[in-house]
Design brief:
mainly alpha; two-stranded antiparallel sheet; 2 strands; about 10% strand; globular
Length: about 70
């Protein structure tokens, strides 16, 4: 809750993971949820289990870093 989405995105970028951070053109929803921004990962048909494992490992590292 205390970590800004852009900080998460920057941390993951250093780990080689690209995510989008911001309000994603849904400001009314963000206001309703009382959040200023979110970070999101996109997956596609080219994403495999290894990609997801790498993402989860990097996200765990980010959580530990910011904790």
């Amino acid at each position: 809750d205390d970590i800004h989405a852009h900080e998460v995105a920057s941390f993951l970028d250093v780990e080689g993971i690209a995510v989008r951070a911001g309000h994603h053109c849904c400001q009314p929803l963000m206001k309703f949820l009382n959040v200023s921004s979110t970070a999101r990962a996109s997956i596609g048909m080219y994403t495999n289990k290894s990609d997801v494992d790498i993402f989860v490992k990097a996200l765990d590292k980010a959580i530990t870093f910011f904790d």
